[in-house]
């Protein structure tokens, strides 16, 4: 018989340990009834790439959230099972362990609650949770896997979303050149001077979070170029033309070590946004056209940009903030009169400054994240059939 | 009445909003929701502030100039919502805090003792006016003003919610 499931030992056991840098902080979000386990994450990864969760077995989460694009799809809007396009641009799935409000308008409060939305939406995967559960129950692969995670072979919608959420929480990106910078060159160099017995441990631990690179290589990579450093300074500085201070002040909304502050703002894309954003939920005029400020981690890989995917390149994004900002009534206070020229209504950066900013943004790219085998499609390499 | 109907509707459809509804967008009156460890959860609207004692606080804003903010003490608002302040602010209640949230998701906290007039004379108010004008749109309609605090970071703008909770 062609049964696929033979090797019990393949599924790892025990509690899943999240590994992330201390500067990310511990305000992590896990549902109390759904702590991550190694087996749950193993199942969640398979479900994430499982096309049976869609009406015509054609789409999985991974179709719109592709690893090589930091879990975006490279499309302005995404095509669902019924051939229609989504209303908004597919978001990057990065460092969701810290996210409290999901979607462009923050309308979902947990990954468990979020996961069923694309599954049942007729314009996305288009299949009820119970239909999905039934399909998986009929395979010989999944019931045994569910048993290893939940204790019995029952496949339910709730168990599907729980495992998906567990896997999504593991999508941590903290290995960019900017991270090397944050850990700071000195920090790494200092270990060369500490006492021998402790030194080995320290070096090992640094190498471990750096995916096994050796310390010398890490130090070399930690250095940002002069152009990138100037870009970082602009990113973090508020412009003040009266005092002759040049700046782009991106950090006000995109700052902090995770480049994600979970804020919702109108960044002046339109005088009157076609999509009302969070105003649809709050009914407040001042919330019109306000959207989640997305993470800038891996931003080089996640074009096109903005909630409607209107910009194809980072150059176009910078042109927006520098030259073309509209002044809607609900424009964020952080962007009002924020300019390098007196009385300006957009940043008015010089062309070298635009290049510097982009150079800095590219230091946020984590090439190990998009190649990490723990996050890849297991069915492309799997020896076992899932029939 | 419309307002409540609208809120009920968003509750129902929250998971399935479509931006197409943008044109049909109804408007609700802005308010500050007080929830958590309270005996009387409520939403405060502009008109409700009138029933409390009016207080003014003068402090500098980011422009470096002094401004006169007026509104009501958070202490008075929270007492009315049944928060353990005054004679009840002792024992484990001293581990409670107020989490203030703004419409853009920004959050700050104050411990209850910081807000209690029996602990401190420093006023922390929910302001609705500055220099006798309604607050500008990007700051209001409600803003926390902390008397004498050196940095303005906790003078949180566009306040929408106050949640009282125990430190775990």
Automatic annotation (TrEMBL), chain A:
Heme c 2 binds at residues 250, 253-254. Residues 226-365 form the Cytochrome c domain. Heme c 1 binds at residues 61, 64-65. It comes from Pedobacter metabolipauper. Binds 2 heme groups per subunit. Coiled coil: none annotated. Its cofactor is heme. InterPro entries: Cyt_c-like_dom, Cyt_c-like_dom_sf, Cytochrome_c_Peroxidase/MauG, Di-haem_cyt_c_peroxidsae, MauG/Cytc_peroxidase. One of its GO terms (cellular component) is periplasmic space. It holds the Pfam family CCP_MauG. Binds 2 heme groups. Its main location: periplasm. This is Cytochrome c peroxidase. GO terms for molecular function: cytochrome-c peroxidase activity; electron transfer activity; heme binding; metal ion binding. Keywords: Heme, Iron, Metal-binding, Oxidoreductase, Periplasm, Peroxidase, Signal. It is found in: Periplasm.
TrEMBL record, chain B:
Residues 1-23 form the signal peptide. This is Molybdopterin-dependent oxidoreductase-like protein. SUPFAM superfamilies: Oxidoreductase molybdopterin-binding domain. The keyword Signal applies. It comes from Pedobacter metabolipauper. Keywords: Signal.
């Amino acid at each position: 018989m062609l049964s696929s499931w033979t090797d019990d030992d393949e599924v790892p056991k025990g509690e899943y340990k999240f590994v992330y840098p201390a500067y990310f902080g511990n305000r992590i979000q896990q549902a109390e009834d759904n702590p991550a386990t190694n087996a749950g994450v193993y199942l969640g990864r398979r479900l994430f790439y499982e096309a049976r969760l869609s009406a015509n077995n054609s789409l999985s989460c991974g179709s719109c959230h592709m690893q090589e694009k930091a879990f975006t799809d490279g499309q302005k809007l995404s095509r669902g099972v019924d051939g229609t396009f989504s209303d908004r641009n597919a978001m990057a799935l990065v460092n969701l362990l810290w996210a409290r409000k999901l979607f462009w308008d923050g309308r979902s409060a947990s990954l468990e609650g979020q996961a069923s939305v694309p599954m049942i939406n007729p314009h996305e995967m288009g299949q009820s949770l119970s239909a999905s559960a039934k399909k998986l129950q009929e395979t010989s692969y999944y019931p045994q896997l569910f048993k290893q995670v939940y204790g019995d072979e029952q496949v339910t919608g709730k168990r599907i979303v729980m495992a998906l959420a567990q896997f999504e929480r593991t999508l941590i990106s903290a290995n960019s050149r900017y991270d090397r910078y944050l850990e700071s060159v000195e920090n790494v160099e200092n270990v060369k001077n500490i006492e021998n017995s402790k030194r080995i441990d320290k070096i090992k631990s640094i190498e471990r979070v750096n995916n096994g690179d050796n310390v010398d290589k890490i130090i070399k990579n930690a250095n940002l170029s002069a152009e990138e450093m100037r870009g970082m300074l602009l990113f973090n500085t508020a412009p003040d033309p009266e005092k002759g201070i040049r700046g782009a002040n991106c950090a006000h909304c995109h700052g902090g070590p995770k480049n994600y502050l979970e804020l919702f703002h109108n960044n002046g894309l339109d005088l009157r946004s076609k999509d009302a954003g969070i105003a649809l939920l709050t009914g407040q005029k001042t919330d019109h056209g306000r959207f989640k400020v997305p993470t800038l981690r891996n931003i080089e890989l996640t074009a096109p940009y903005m909630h409607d995917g209107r910009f194809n390149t980072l150059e176009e994004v910078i042109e927006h903030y520098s030259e073309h900002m509209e002044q809607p009534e609900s424009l964020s206070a952080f962007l009002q009169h924020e300019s390098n020229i007196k009385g300006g209504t957009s940043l008015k950066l010089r062309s070298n400054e635009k290049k510097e900013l982009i150079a800095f943004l590219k230091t946020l790219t984590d090439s190990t994240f998009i190649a990490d085998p723990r996050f890849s499609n297991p069915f492309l390499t799997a020896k076992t059939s899932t029939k | 009445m419309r307002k409540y109907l609208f809120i009920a509707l968003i509750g129902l459809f929250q998971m399935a909003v479509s931006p197409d509804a943008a044109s049909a967008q109804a408007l609700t009156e802005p308010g500050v929701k007080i929830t958590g460890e309270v005996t009387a959860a409520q939403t405060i609207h502009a008109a409700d502030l009138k029933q409390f004692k009016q207080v003014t606080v003068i402090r500098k804003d980011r422009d470096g100039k002094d401004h006169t903010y007026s509104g009501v003490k958070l202490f008075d608002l929270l007492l009315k919502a049944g928060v353990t302040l005054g004679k009840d602010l002792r024992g484990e209640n001293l581990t409670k805090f107020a989490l203030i949230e703004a419409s853009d998701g920004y959050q700050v906290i104050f411990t209850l003792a910081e807000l209690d007039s029996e602990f401190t004379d420093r006023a922390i108010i929910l302001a609705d006016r500055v220099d006798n004008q309604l607050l500008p749109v990007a700051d209001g309609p409600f803003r926390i003003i902390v008397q004498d605090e050196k940095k303005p970071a906790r003078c949180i703008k566009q306040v929408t919610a106050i949640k009282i909770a125990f430190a775990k």
